[in-house]
Structure formats: structure tokens, C-alpha cells
User: Fold Putative cinnamyl alcohol dehydrogenase 1 from Zea mays.
Amino acid sequence: MRLSMKRKIYQPHFTLSLHGVFNLCQTIGGSSRSTEHKLVMELGIDAILMNGPIPILSEMDKSRISMVVSWATSSIFWLYSNQRSLLEISCKEPPRNESLLSKILRLLAASVILGKISSIFHGKSVDLAGNTSETLCSFLDNAYERAETAKSCSVNDTLAVIILHLQDHMPKNSDSLPSVIAALCLLLLDRSSKQVNKHLANNRGKIEMLCSKIGCPAESNPAWRWHYYQPWKDSALQRTGMERLEEEQACRSLLVLFSSAFSACLSEFPVLSLDDVEKSGLFQWERDLMAKQSST
Assistant:
């Protein structure tokens, strides 16, 4: 406890196992949602975020992290339901602090990525530092694993839907977007249910092309650390505004593809394609605007 009190708020104060965090949520979740329990719920959410991401190593881990994030998300919606925008949901710390939903999304994405790195690269002589200059496409090639069971695919779909739901409440230019996309790729590519996998397989070429425009997730850098206030940034990574825009557009295109894969399973939902996005002219307008700003 004394060591915890000496640490700054953005540093993890303690380390609970995923089982411990899961039990914490179950205990708090058993309480009725009332104004009397608001403080307990807020402390529970802070405990999850202060604990930091926990690598997901098994199917049980996936089920537990799904429950933890679902509880935290629903609690945040309930606690701050009177606010005009969920993007305004932030801790009572400095104004620069990002929203609680964004922190939860970062934590979930990092847990997926760190779990995959731990399971795939365990016992292998792999230089993760060398991967930081490569692309998401090459990172996924290194992370290739055997086909997963139907039960595993179902849990993967559940986690992916949670990530997509949280991402839907994020600002367009979120710094953690590349990590979110990396987590979705690790969960869905060749590891999703038959219906989702079929849709993604039909767009395999587009997915690989888009992944080649996205850098490796920050979590693959050995220097990466969990930051409470905002995503960790690699100070050595220098990119132009146009390069950042191309990566962001590739990420948003993949979000469309992944969302469409789930919508395609439901006949009553219209499916938005990448062609629809390109025909809208939005991406081209953004590129033209960036080029104009760069030339001035």
C-alpha cells in the first residue's frame, strides 16, 4: 500500500490477475445500480484501468476479459448517462485526459495484442524491436497460428464486436486506432466464425493491401508501457502528415470491412462496402486537403 501511494496516478499501482479483476467485477456487479453504489462502481473502473492490460492467453481469459470490459462499459454508460456526449466522459484528473471509454478500448486492444505476442513469440528468438519499423501485415505474418476451434471463434467474434462498439464512440483521429485494428485482425482473420470469415476471405487482397499501409502496433515495441492518461507514443517514429493520413484512412477502411462482415450475417442490415466509401469522395477530399495544407 505504501509503495502504491508513492506512485503517480498514471502508473499502475498494483497488479491483479485477470481472475482477480474478473472477481472484482462480479462482486461490484452484484450490487444494485443506485446512487449509493456510484462511488463503488467508479472505484471499480479505476481499479481496472490502474491495473493495466493483462495478456489474454486462453479461451477462459477471453471470456473473462469480455465480461470485465462489458461490465465497465455498461457502468460508464450508466454513470454518465446525463452527459451530452460520451466523448466527454473523462476522469477527474487533468483536462487533457481522454475519455474512460477510450481507456477501456485501449486496455482491451493491448490485452489482445500482448497476449498474442506472448503466446506466439514465447521461446522464439524474435527481435520485437525490429518489428517497429515494419507494417501490420508483416506483424500478422509473424503472428500466424493454427486454425482455432469453433468455440474459440465465437469468443473472438464477441470480443471483436465489443471493440467495434467501443470504437464507434471514439473520435475519428484516435491515436490508438492502429492498435485497435491490430487487435481486430488478430481476433478475426482466419479465426472468426464461418459467416464472418467467408466475408473477410472474399476481401483478403484488400485487407492485406490496407494492412501494408499501417505500422506495427505500438505494443510490439519493447519500450511500450501502459499510460493511464493517453496512448504511449514512440518518440523515434517520425512521419509526415500525409503518411499519418494514409494510415488513418487504411484503418478506417478496415473498420468498414470488419463491420460489414458482421452486418452481412444479418439480412435485414445493409452492408457498407469500401467501394461505397471511395465513391463518396471523402478519402480523396481528405487527401487533397492534406496536400493543400502541406504546400502552404
Q: What stands out?
A: Residues 2-229+239-295 form one domain. Residues 84-95 have pLDDT under 50 and may be disordered. Residues 166 and 267 are 23 Å apart (CA to CA).
